[in-house]
Amino acid sequence: MEKIELFKKYNLILNEEKLNKLNEFYNNLILYNKSFNLTAITEENEVFIKHFLDSIYPEKFIKQNSKILDIGAGAGFPSLPLKIYRPDLKITMIDSLNKRVNFLNDMINILSLNNVEALHFRAEDFAKNNRNNYDYVVIRAVAKLPTLLEYSIPFLKLGGKLLAYKSSFVEEEVKDSFNALKLLGAKLESIEKFDLEGNARSVIIVKKVAETPLKYPRNKNLPKLKPL
Question: How far apart are the first and last CA of the chain?
């Protein structure tokens, strides 16, 4: 399917400039992937659906000119496609692996993107000077929701929201997150389910409603080893 038509099918309008940048991102992703194992998905149509469209589709839940943190940004999903589609967004990406951060900074330069940065940090270290600082946190990762909540909620302003990109089977994770939500000062706002060309997906939206205690996020990998 024509790329512009593919996005239009989901009420997303790609102009030539945005399409050119997504194409350029794809070409460089595949080039760098030969050295850096950034993605197992490499076929062009699959990358556009499973990485680019998946990253961009939830943009309707993000207000204009928002300040966003992407934790564990990896190969730049969802941040770089989001930034290409929504130039108004101000995005910080953090990742614990320096070679991925170098790749992200190369992409920022190659794609001539403004108001976006990639930094080499673990979330618990970055939290020391960046609490209550972001309108949204976006995470597209394999960790369970209680772990993602502990890493993300401390960074949000009051009223800010986490968008956790997930597959369609999230009910068990949500059920296991009630204690974490309570301890961190957050509440589940909604679970948005959608299908992208046969790929069942969810975005879990969580709102910060109270101050998060300073002891979170815990260090020594405890959010993963001993979830709240």
Answer: 44
Q: Does residue 11 lie within any of the structural domains?
A: no
Summarised one tens digit per residue, pLDDT across range 13-59 is 999 999 999 999 999 999 999 888 888 988 999 999 999 999 999 99
User: Does residue 141 fall inside a structural domain?
Assistant: yes
Residue 147: other Cβ atoms inside 10 A? 24
Asked if the structure places residue 42 within a domain, the reply is: no
Residue 27 lies in a domain: no
Which residues make beta-bridge pairs with 94? 71, 119
What is the extent of the structural domain holding 90? Answer: 61-225
Q: How many domains does the chain have?
A: 1
Distance separating alpha carbons of residues 205 and 147, to the nearest angstrom: 15
Whole-model pTM: value is: 0.95
Nearest to 183 by CA among 205, 225, 213, 154: 213
The token pair at 97 is 């692996």
Q: Which of 43, 28, 165, 49 is nearest to 102 (CA)?
A: 28
